[in-house]
Design a protein that fits this description.
Layout (H helix, E strand, L loop, with lengths): L7 E3 L6 E9 L17 E10 L2 E15 L6 E16 H4 L10 E4 L3 E3 L1 H11 L29 H5 L5 H7 L7
Parallel strand pairs: 5-6
Antiparallel strand pairs: 1-7, 2-3, 3-4, 4-5
Length: 180
């Protein structure tokens, strides 16, 4: 790995034209904070970096294996994600010519180096499933006794009665009118 830290590159390591970089990034370096996900293996980052004077066009992807809990049954779900990376890195002096904030997908270097770590982190977060499921037919947990219904049915009395919130509709179906 070149540069000062993970996914940090010096301008001098690139000549005009296109070059490729591949790195394994320790999952802890992504610093995902409060995101409830486990990344058991290093993140594979593949980049194609094209230098055009003081600008760099960057395209690539980060590939990682993540482990999350199914939102229905709480079982562990492992999946492989591919987060696309696409941005333009410009000189800091060009930032002064643009209005207010940097446009989406534009990063500025300091004349010596640039880091892609924050952009890779954001790309990974955007690719994480918000509601991971172990499968489309996941039955979840019994709301009364907590048994995983994917492993079999439960014998709790509450499940035989059904969901009490539907009681009035059940009574209507049986021909019983509610008391007022």
């Amino acid at each position: 790995m070149s540069g000062r830290g993970p996914l940090t590159y010096t301008l001098s390591e690139f000549s005009e034209g296109t070059s490729e970089r591949s790195e394994q990034l320790d999952a802890g370096a992504l610093n995902l904070g409060d995101v409830q996900v486990s990344i058991p293996h290093p993140v594979e980052v593949s980049l194609e970096i094209t230098r055009m004077r003081e600008e760099f066009r960057i395209r690539g992807q980060a590939t990682l294996r993540v482990s999350q809990n199914c939102v229905r049954c709480l079982e562990s779900v492992e999946s492989v994600l591919t987060a696309p990376i696409a941005m333009l890195v410009r000189g800091r002096h060009e930032r002064e010519n643009e209005s207010r904030d940097a446009p989406e997908g534009v990063l500025y270097h300091d004349g010596e180096s640039f880091s892609l770590l924050n952009e890779v982190r954001q790309s990974v977060i955007l690719e994480l499933p918000a509601d991971p499921f172990c499968g489309p037919d996941c039955k979840g947990l019994c709301p009364h006794c907590g048994v995983n219904l994917n492993n079999g049915s439960c014998d709790c009395a509450a499940s035989a009665l059904g969901d009490p919130r539907w009681g009035v509709l059940h009574n209507l179906r049986q021909g019983q009118m509610p008391d007022h």
